[in-house]
Amino acid sequence: MSTRYDQSLDDFVLSQEELFENPDPRLPVALVLDVSGSMMGAPIAELQKGVETFFEAILCDEVARSSAEIAIVTFGGTVSAPLDFRSIENQKIPLLKAGGMTPMGQAVETALDLLEARKEEYRNAGVDYYQPWMVLMTDGVPTDDISGAENRIVELVEGRHLTVFPIAIGDADTEELSRLGGGRRPLRLQGLKFGEFFAWLSRSVAKVSQSIPGERVQLPEGLETWAQL
Predict the structure, then answer these.
(1) pTM score of the predicted model
(2) What gap in Å lies between CA 33 and CA 137, rounded to an integer?
(3) How far is Cα 14 from Cα 121, in angstroms, rounded to an integer?
(4) Residue-wise pLDDT tens for the chain (229 aa)?
(5) Domains and CATH numbers, the chain
(6) What is d(CA 185, CA 187) in angstroms, rounded to the nearest whole number?
């Protein structure tokens, strides 16, 4: 069981109550976001707007709203999990601040720990769930060892227990990022089109939420609106 970052006992109890009150299958999505010093200025501001766009779009979709659960893990100097898995209606988007180095490996392992803990809670509550997603966004190169995170991702992806979306920002090292992609080629963001990316991601979440857990779903078109193809 993972450490619950910044989560009070009251929050934990509420998250359990949500599972029993809403038996709909859940889609847990972990956003692992680079907030290191190189993200200062326009990048962090646009990332903040993009995350807000993501939440707003899911809240406007009745099915996705009852299924999607979002956690946010940030890495910039230190690793933090300001948002743990909960009903999106009961979450407050954290203010993202840039600074420090890029401990990407630790951040990914933290996100994986949170996902494993939430899956255990789903099972205990008898709630079905879709294959978890992890979105990893960075504009740099890891400043810590990523081998442990890489091995865990490979095992989970090969076992069909995780889908990873590796997104390169600016001049990010795609070779290193690909090690954490679980076989998925990293896509590079066009400029600072965070809003377009998160709009596409929200449509993807909505589409999966309308399917049956375990069913293969073709993600929506629109990569050209935000990715360099």
Answers:
(1) 0.91
(2) 5
(3) 12
(4) 334 444 555 555 556 677 677 778 999 999 999 999 999 999 999 999 999 999 999 999 999 999 999 999 999 999 999 999 988 887 899 999 999 999 999 999 999 999 999 999 999 999 999 999 999 999 999 999 999 999 999 999 999 999 999 999 999 999 999 999 999 999 999 999 999 999 999 999 999 998 988 888 888 999 999 999 7
(5) 25-209 (3.40.50.410)
(6) 6
Q: In angstroms, how far is the first alpha carbon of the chain from the final one? A: 39
* Helix pair 9-21, 104-125: axis angle to 10 deg: 50
Asked if 119 and 1 touch (Cβ cutoff 8 Å), the reply is no
Cα–Cα nearest to 64, from 210, 225, 229: 210
Provide the 10 A C-beta neighbour count for residue 123. Answer: 11
Written as one letter, the residue type at 187 is: L
